[in-house]
Design a protein that fits this description.
The complex is a heterotrimer of chains A (308), B (346) and C (326). By secondary structure, chain A is mostly helical. Chain A has a single domain (31-54, 69-302), classed as MetI-like fold (Orthogonal Bundle), CATH 1.10.3720.10. Chain A has helices at residues 2-10, 16-25, 28-49, 83-118, 123-137, 140-162, 171-196, 199-207, 211-219, 224-247, 258-268, 275-302. Chain B is of the alpha/beta class and 346 residues long. Chain B has two domains: 3-93 and 174-300, 3-Layer(aba) Sandwich (Rossmann fold), CATH 3.40.50; 100-170, no CATH class. Chain B has helices spanning 54-61, 84-90, 111-121, 127-141, 157-169, 187-204, 215-221, 239-244, 249-257, 297-301, 325-330, and strands spanning 3-18, 23-39, 43-47, 69-74, 77-78, 94-97, 175-179, 207-212, 224-229, 232-238, 265-267, 307-308, 316-318, 343-345. In chain B, strand 4 and strand 5 (77-78) form a beta hairpin. The N and C termini of chain B lie far apart (47 Å). With 326 residues, chain C is an alpha/beta fold. Chain C has a domain at 251-326. Chain C has twelve helices and twelve strands. Chain C has helices spanning 48-55, 84-90, 102-105, 112-123, 128-141, 147-150, 160-172, 190-207, 218-224, 242-247, 252-259, 300-304, and strands spanning 6-17, 20-32, 37-42, 64-66, 71-74, 77-78, 95-98, 178-182, 210-214, 227-232, 235-241, 318-319. In chain C, strands 7-8-9-3-10-11-12 form a seven-stranded mixed sheet, sandwiched between helices. In chain C, strands 1, 2, 4, 5 and 6 form a five-stranded antiparallel sheet that branches. In chain C, a hairpin with a 2-residue loop joins strand 1 and strand 2. The chains are: A mainly alpha (308), B alpha/beta (346), C alpha/beta (326). Chains in contact: A-B, A-C, B-C. At the B-C interface, helix 5, helix 6, helix 7 and helix 9 of B face helix 7, helix 8, helix 9, helix 10 and helix 11 of C. The structure holds adenosine-5'-triphosphate (2 copies) and magnesium ion (MG) (2 copies). The site of one adenosine-5'-triphosphate (ATP) has 16 residues of chain C, from strand 1 and helix 1. Chain C: Keywords: ATP-binding, Cell membrane, Membrane, Nucleotide-binding, Transport. Chain C: It comes from Uabimicrobium amorphum. Chain C: One of its GO terms (molecular function) is ATP binding. Chain C: This is Peptide ABC transporter ATP-binding protein.
């Protein structure tokens, strides 16, 4: 008896999550990349709270295109703005875009995927699949440009008729969310179809649990590992897309981002000035790299087949 | 009125969709014209090979699968016509225990949350009363109370099966469908769970429909036994009668095919030819005719009627042409009737 | 007594898991003689499958490995540590294996005939045409109707029972001396199980091979085996003839196991006898006998030191227990 008790004690705290966490922390690359991501997050938080990089837009007319110095660690750009501060400030932009897009797109994908999977075989499923199919057909940048344009027009109308300001700031976010949720929805749908035939769902029916409660209490939480991984993927994709969109002029407005810095650099690089370009690229590269490794490690840790 | 459950001509067909427009091109006749009566406090065993429709029958009775046609009369009331709300209320009285102890419990809920859920859904009792109820249920099925806040994956197969049983008992049901509750368990654990079910039968007088493919298990726990083949109930009788003198050729083959854990006993095995046919395209006439050793012309054309070879009191129902009246009249004295006693002891 | 066909000595199989090294099989020894059928029984997870896999050198490594002092001798030849190519030559030719789940053991993208011909051509010097002829002949031998048509079927076009027959046909195609059957009928229905076991019995008599039948169905063992090895939690609890094991079990575990099986056509008992408690965790084993905390005969001695299995040379029987039933 005591033996059995001991055994139960040792495995007591081993929930699926603690197991995953333990596995994650044994993965060295995963932990390193996670620390880097945390560092970036801290930087972004500091910017948001106004601790540093507060002078990113300050113009120094007498210090245009200078090299690195004690005042300007990475030099200045064509307008005499501090590149280092701009790169740091862009971290916040990147995180903001990444988080908003990842959270909303994953949530949307989860809900649609869940409903579609739960009602698979009915018109509800057909309808959602049709929407997903349509969205997936449109080339990404074309779609983003179209949505961005539409949202801008909407923002102007809102401003004109209701006095709501700043809506155009989210044009790019909305565009990305509108495209990113489909991948999650597909994956969740597949998983839900698998889960809904499991006996515990049938047991819930047998007890008399109402439909919505079955979906959100019994099925959705069991897709959480997929959502987490999908959110990390959406986060990285959003940051990368933001850079490209900003470079194309479809990106964020009234602020600075790595993409905007690279766009500025297109005029500087021919003149032999690289600091803007390198600063933005390096910040972006390290973050994306670290986040990808982190996402892989997370996926491994959450894979139930690998959690033995 | 001591009939708890009466099933009349129950059918459950699954449509097969095919073609470009996904139209219905055929039916899987998973349960085809099944009727039986279950008395209060009794246990009906349902046996048959994989895919013969045992689970579908159990689920159709509980309306987890909507029956295609037929009646399910529970305590004198046909439940196939009940509205959704009425059915939810009825679910307190009819429960189910599942086969797979790993798939039947939500891995994200603790034992307490799993067992208490029915009480929450039907809004019964205060928080303390619910807690007390869960404690007493865990005592009843032999789980320690300390395990209440653990997750299912921390338990062994047998312990999980007990959690599933506790969940089914929460609402004090009168009728439980046990869908192969011990098939996935080891022998030594299987006997523990069987004893628990036995205890529930005796203490609470719950009626069970006990589905299994192991005839020995069924004999141990059931009063009546029904044998299914390809969606049909081919034989039904009191357990002792069925095991002592099986009538249907399929039942005889099934009984003789069970390996006996006893080297001294030797049963003359009836080895059937071929496999169980697919329920999508069942043979015409008697579904068993292509594997039957006593097959006749009539078997290939006509579906055998339901024949009671026992008394009105003590029914022994067979669906086989060998027992239809003309046949019996013809073969009086002859040996056309399959020999019931095929057991020899060496 | 003749020399054994297969002789396993002090076999240790360990797995590297995240909870540390676990010993799934701990110093077990047994012999198999020509032409006999030996049942390997025990509860789920007691090490039956990996024991039979280790004979063919099929333990997944990593995480698994066979202990240094282990010895598996086939016809006097040491198999542990044999290079992979030599082992591969023995597989299918001298020693064959049948697995529990025939669907996963057959490759779904090739026809049955293709897969059978591959095995035949690997071990016999024949051309494609002859190999196909032999494949058809084998299918006929295992009682598959219309074999010339069935060779061209894919595995999913066959029923479970037919797939298992194909597996048997493949395993027997090169007349092995030893067949390892890992739960060959667990996935099948009783009537199909009867067909398949009948077939295995016939083929065994025809080819005079030894069979190790891994199963947890005591009924199958009683009907088809001459000898039985009872395993419990990585140890051998008891070895003996079918008659000894079923009629005069000595180990309390064997006795408990037999008592807890419900039987057809016997006086109905109200409650089945059970073995209380659960199997210990391989990562957290007791110091003494592994069955001690579920055993009613356990004493201090049992908890202190595990009992040793001594197999009588003459009768090939033995029990690992300090207080066996007599
Ligand atoms: N949802 C479904 N849609 C279509 N066909 C189904 C469905 N559920 C079951 N079937 C079919 O109905 C038949 C009976 O299935 P059922 O699960 O009732 O068999 P069973 O007797 O319980 O078998 P087992 O012993 O393997 O559990 C099978 O042929 C199966 O393929
Ligand atoms: N790849 C592996 N990694 C870690 N442990 C393993 C691995 N394979 C097997 N084991 C362990 O070895 C033990 C014996 O496994 P084995 O598959 O031989 O059991 P078994 O007796 O065949 O059971 P069953 O009746 O369920 O097939 C198990 O407890 C299992 O945990
Ligand atoms: Mg079933
Ligand atoms: Mg095994």
């Amino acid at each position: 008896m005591t033996n059995e008790q001991n055994k139960q004690e040792t495995i007591k705290k081993e929930t699926l999550w603690t197991k995953a966490v333990r596995k994650f922390f044994r993965d060295k690359m995963g932990v390193i990349s996670f620390s880097i991501v945390c560092l970036y997050a801290l930087i972004a938080l500091g910017v948001a709270c106004g601790f540093w990089a507060t002078e990113w837009s300050e113009l120094n007319p007498d210090m245009k295109n200078t090299g690195p110095s004690a005042d300007f660690w990475l030099g200045t750009n064509i307008l005499g703005q501090d590149i280092y501060q701009r790169a740091i400030f862009s971290t916040k932009t990147a995180f903001e875009v990444g988080l908003v897009v990842a959270l909303v797109a994953t949530m949307l994908g989860a809900i649609v995927g869940c409903l579609s999977g739960y009602f698979s075989g009915t018109w509800i499923d057909e309808f959602f699949l049709w929407i997903i199919g349509c969205i997936d057909c449109i080339p990404f940048y074309l779609f983003v440009a179209a949505v961005g344009f539409a949202v801008n027009t909407l923002a102007q109308n809102l401003n004109a008729s209701f006095g709501i300001e700043g809506f155009e700031y989210f044009a790019m976010h909305i565009a990305m969310i509108a495209t990113f949720w489909t991948a999650t929805a597909r994956l969740v749908r597949g998983e839900v179809i698998k889960i809904k035939h499991l006996e515990f769902v049938e047991a819930a029916h047998a007890i008399g649990v109402p439909g919505p409660k079955i979906i959100f209490k019994h099925i959705l939480p069991n897709t959480f590992h997929i959502l987490l991984v999908q959110a990390t993927i959406a986060f990285v994709s959003a940051i990368k897309s933001e850079v490209i969109l900003s470079y194309l002029g479809l990106g964020v407005k009234n602020t600075v981002s790595w993409g905007k810095m690279i766009a500025e650099a297109t005029q500087e690089v021919p003149a032999g000035i690289y600091s803007n370009f390198f600063a933005a690229s390096a910040f972006l590269f390290v973050l994306v790299m670290a986040f990808n490794i982190f996402a892989d490690a997370l996926q491994d840790a959450l894979d139930p087949k690998k959690v033995s | 009125m001591d009939n708890l459950l009466e099933v009349k001509n129950l059918k459950k067909y699954f449509p097969i969709k095919g073609g470009f427009f996904r139209t219905v091109v055929g039916n899987v006749k998973a349960v085809d014209d099944v009727s039986f009566v279950l008395k209060k406090g009794k246990t009906l065993g349902v046996v048959g090979e994989s895919g013969c429709g045992k689970s579908t029958l159990g689920r159709a009775i509980l309306r987890l699968h909507e029956p295609t046609s037929g009646e399910v009369v529970f305590e004198g009331k046909d439940i196939t016509g009940l509205s959704h709300e009425e059915m939810v209320a009825k679910r307190r009285e009819m429960q189910i225990i599942f086969q797979d102890p790993f798939a039947s419990l939500n891995p994200r809920l603790t034992v307490f949350q799993i067992i208490v859920e029915p009480l929450e859904i039907h809004e019964i009792g205060t928080a303390e009363e619910r807690y007390e109820k869960v404690c007493s249920l865990m005592d009843l099925v032999g789980l320690r109370r300390q395990y209440m806040h653990r997750y299912p994956h921390e338990f062994s197969g047998g312990q999980r099966q007990r959690i599933g049983i506790a969940r089914a008992l929460t609402m004090n049901p009168k009728f439980i469908v046990a869908d192969e509750p011990v098939s996935a368990l080891d022998v030594s654990v299987q006997s523990q769970v069987l004893n628990l079910i036995r205890k529930l039968q005796q203490e609470f007088g719950i009626s069970f429909m006990f589905i299994a493919h192991d005839l020995a298990v069924v004999q141990h726990i059931c009063d009546d036994v029904a044998v299914m083949y390809l969606g049909r109930m081919v034989e039904k009788a009191k357990a002792e009668d069925l095991y002592k003198s099986p009538k249907h050729p399929y039942t005889q083959a099934l009984l003789s095919a069970i390996p006996q854990p006893d080297p001294n006993r030797h049963i003359d095995r009836i080895v059937l030819e071929g496999d169980v046919p697919s329920p999508i395209n069942p043979p015409s006439g008697c579904p068993f005719h292509n594997r039957c050793i006593h097959v006749k012309e009539i078997c290939k054309a006509v579906v055998p009627p339901v024949i009671n070879t026992g008394t009105a009191e003590n029914e022994h129902i067979v669906r086989c042409h060998l027992f239809s009246e003309e046949e019996q009249a013809k073969s009086k004295g002859e040996t056309a009737k399959p020999t019931a006693e095929s057991e020899t002891t060496s | 007594m003749t020399t054994p066909l297969l002789s396993v000595k002090d076999l240790v199989i360990e797995f590297n898991t995240e909870h540390g090294l676990i010993r799934a099989v701990d110093r077990i020894s047994f012999d198999i003689f020509e032409g006999e059928t030996v049942g390997l029984v025990g509860e789920s997870g007691c090490g039956k499958s990996i024991t039979s896999l280790s004979i063919l050198g099929l333990i997944p490594s990593p995480p698994g490995r066979i202990g240094a002092e282990s010895s598996i001798k086939y016809q006097g030849k040491e198999l542990v540590g044999l290079p992979e190519e030599q082992l591969r030559l023995m597989r299918g030719h001298d020693i064959s294996m049948i697995f529990q789940e025939p669907m996963t053991a057959l490759n779904p993208v090739f026809t049955v005939g293709n897969q059978m011909m591959e095995v035949i051509m690997r071990h016999k010097k024949v051309n494609k045409k002859e190999a196909l002829k032999m494949a058809v002949k084998m299918l006929e031998d295992v009682g598959i109707p219309a074999p010339e048509k069935r060779v061209h079927n894919y595995p999913h076009q066959l029923s479970g029972g037919m797939r298992q027959r194909v597996m048997i046909a493949m395993a027997l195609s090169c007349n092995p001396h030893l067949l390892l059957a890992d739960e060959p009928t667990t996935a099948l229905d009783v009537t199909i199980q009867a067909q398949v076991m009948d077939l295995m019995g016939d083929m065994q008599k025809k080819q005079n091979m030894a069979v190790i039948l891994v199963t947890h169905d005591l009924g199958v063992v009683a009907e088809f085996c001459q000898r039985v090895i009872v395993m419990y939690c990585g140890h051998i609890a008891e070895v003996g003839t079918v008659d000894q094991i079923f009629n005069r079990p000595q180990h309390p575990y064997t006795k408990g196991l037999l008592a807890s099986v419900p039987r057809v056509l016997e006086e109905k008992v109200e409650f089945l006898p059970t073995i209380s408690g659960t199997v210990p965790d391989l990562g957290n084993l007791p110091k003494g006998c592994r069955f001690a905390d579920r055993c009613e005969r356990a004493t201090e001695e049992c908890n202190a030191k595990p009992p040793q299995l001594t197999i009588d040379e003459k009768t090939q029987a033995g029990v690992a227990c300090y207080h066996p039933y007599k």
